[in-house]
Every structure is written in C-alpha cells, then in structure tokens.
Amino acid sequence: MISEPQLLQKVTRRLIPFMFLLYIVSYLDRVNVSFASLQMNTALGFSAKIYALGAGIFFIGYFLFEVPSNLILHRVGARLWMARILVTWGIISSAMMFVKGTPSFYVLRFLLGVAEAGFFPGMILYLTYWFPTHARSRAVGRFMTATAVASAIGGPLSGLLLKMDGWHGLSGWQWLFLVEGLPAIALGFITFVYLPDGPKSANWLNNEEKKWIEDTLERERQQTASGGQHSMNEAMRSGRVWTFAIIYFAIIMSFYGITFWLPQIVAAFSGMDNLAVGLITTIPWIGATIGMVLLSRNSDASGDRRWHVAFSALGGAVGLIAAGLLHNPVLELAALSLAAAGIWGTLGPFWALASESLAGTGAAAGIALINSVGNLGGFLGPYLIGWIRDRTGSFAFALIALAVFPLLGAVITLSSRHAASRLRLGAVDHRPIEDRG
Questions:
Q1: Which pLDDT belongs to residue 274?
Q2: Which of 227, 312, 369, 408 has a CA 20 to 30 Å removed from the CA of 246?
Q3: Nearest to residue 281, comparing CAs of 421, 156, 398, 378?
C-alpha cells in the first residue's frame, strides 16, 4: 500500500534539493551583475541608464528563446536539455569578465539570456511530471526559495570577490563573473547523470511507486481536459494564459527592480563598503525566504491560490512605498524586507495556479509564454529605476513608482475570473518524454 505523504517526501528529498541548487546557480549568474556594478560602473564609465539597460537586456534574449527552449525540453527530455542550458550559460556568465565597454556589456547580457532561456519554465513543467496539484505550490515554493537564498549567499560572496580587486591583474568585478560562472558548467555534466526525465526512468522508485505517480497525474489530466486534442497554438491564443502573463509581468517588474538595484540602494542609504553592503543585503532575502515558505505552505493547506497571490503582491507594494517614503536606514531596510517577502511570496501560489491545469504541449507552451512575457518585466523594472534615478538623483521616487506594478497584479488577480479558474488546455500528452513510447 502506497503512502502518499511518504512517497511525495521521497520524491521531494531526491529532486528538490538538486533543483534548488541549480536554481541558486542560475539566479546568481543572472543577477550577480548587481554586485559587479558597485565596481564595474565606475571602472567602465556606465551611467545608471546604461547599467539598467544592460542588466535588463538579458530578458530580451530570454523572451525570444523561452518558448522554443521549453518545447525542445518537452520533446528531448529534461536531463539532456537542462545539461545543455547549464553548460552554455556558465560559459557566457564567466565570459562577462571580458566586458570592455557598453557594446560588449549589452551583447554578453543578451547572449546570457538566450543561453538560460527555458531553464525556469522547464523546471516548473518538470515538477508537473512528479507532483499532484494539491502538493505543487509547496514544491514550487521550495524550489523557488532558491532566488532568495541565492541573493542571500551571493551578497557576502560577491562582496568577498570584489575584495580580490587587482589580484593577478584582474579587477574584483572580473573575478566575480569568472568564479560565479564556473559552477554552472560543472553542474551541467552532473545534471546529465543525475536528473531522470520522469518517474519511469527513476531507478530510486519501485514499480508500485512509479505506477502511483503516473496513475494519479493521469487522473488529474483527465479531469482537466475538456475533451479533444489541444495544441500549442491554442495555448498561445488563450486569453487566460495571457491574463496570467500580465499578472506575472506586474510581479516581475518589482521582483527584478529590487534584485538588480538592491546593492546600490543599500549602499546609498548606508554609506558602507562593498563587503558590508553584501552582508546587509542578506536581510531582505531572509524575509523573502520566510515569505515564500510560509505562503506556499498555507496555499497548499487551504487550497487557495488566488487570494494568496493577491495578498502577497499587496504586501510587496506596501513595502516598496514605505521604503520610498522612509529616511531612517533601519526602517528602510525593514520596508525592503517586507517588500521582498510579499513579492517573493506570490511565486509558489502563482505557479501552482498557472500550471496545475496545463498539460502536454499546451503546458510547455503556456508555462513558457507566461514566463517569457512576464520576464519582460525583468527588462523594464530595472530600466524604470535607472531612468528615474538618473533624473531625480534618488531611489525614493523609483521605489514608489515600482510599487504600482505589484498593486496592479493584485487587482487583476482578484478581478479576473481567468485567474480563479482552471486553464483547460491539455488533453494532449502531458507525460515526460520517457513515458510516451
């Protein structure tokens, strides 16, 4: 007799820590430019606008190649495609040490986005191969806490690497890119060996356990399907998918607005050196981690997704407004921690809501579309802050302007029936590649 809690715990222990590690490396490599900017901007003469555009242009490459990458993963399997993604982004991330000016900065950031495209939605799709809907928010939340943990780890680590300035003729920011890009290359080869394409190829599950997972997910797919076969084109044309994409765009505007500028915001109000800034920036990321874990757990326990997304986004907006209005460093740091907890807290419930009814090619395309359109906010959020900062000389107005977007996301989530109802896109084959015969 299969015990569901014990089996899901077994799957969680085997997959989530490794996926968590991959996402830490992924997130660190895309955002370490925020710490490099503490030296790089001065060394290369980058204005706030140039830096913001370079930081955000990552998401243009990401947007253009996200859907094709996720469809390839669905076709060839997670193990091979994730390994490819890791190795190529690790090489390009390390190559950031060779940036000499604005053109090379823009080109390498764009190529990094192209290389990493498909990783995150591929991981979300991969979780649908293993976890029933009622357990998915917690699984997604645990996986996505890596973004906050990566930032918490990345702050002190990046501060230390910046201290290597001048060692063997390299600047501190060059050492930062070189050292932080190498783990992705190594993990790419490990992924090819370690990560199964799905339950059927998992040699750590017995036949009864494999059958339970497959039968449970198949019943959910049948309940989700509204009849007939649905295609990628239906997912792309779905108003419901686009509603989720708009909500996610609003969340990601603030998500990456904070991420790419937090070191400079903390440096501005604290006046401390780079190592101290790296240490202080861990505090908001601790708040983000707590918010993600607690809200994901409560979302699964209650079965509610919509109110958890809206409530968290509203908390993020309040934190950003408070951070913009307050002038006491301690209170400003507390407000940024609230903002991070709220914004990051939306992620587990949001992706459970968006993915739990998608299937097959519809799932691969729908999830990738939501993520790719949403991540355009990763381009516009940092750029908005840089643009306002250049014109006002302050982060205060930029933070208040950024707060509009999670507030908008909360309003759309609560007002749209699309966000409350299931997306019926998927009577097509939802199984991982190794189950399809």
A1: 77
A2: 227
A3: 156
pLDDT (tens digit per residue) in 173-228: 999 999 999 999 999 999 999 999 889 889 999 999 999 998 888 887 776 555 44
3-state helix, strand, coil in the chain (%, to 5): 80, 0, 20
**Paired tokens of 90:** 């690790």
Residue 18: domain span:
4-435
Q: What is this structure's pTM?
A: 0.72
Q: Using CA atoms, how far apart are residues 405 and 400, in angstroms rounded to an integer? A: 10
Q: How many CA atoms lie within 13 A of 139 on its CB side?
A: 30
CB 329 within 8 A of CB 269: yes
Q: Residue 256 and residue 275: Cα distance in Å, rounded?
A: 22
The candidate with the shortest Cα–Cα distance to 427, out of 381, 362, 370, is 362
- Tally of domains in the chain: 1
Report d(CA 395, CA 401) in Å as an integer.
10
Question: Which tokens hold the place of 403?
Answer: 């707060």
66 in Cβ contact with 118 (< 8 Å) = yes
Is residue 358 a contact partner of residue 425, using CB atoms and an 8 Å limit?
yes
Closest Cα partner for 282 from 35, 9, 39, 41? 35
Q: What is the CATH number of the domain that holds 40?
A: 1.20.1250.20
367-377 mean pLDDT:
82
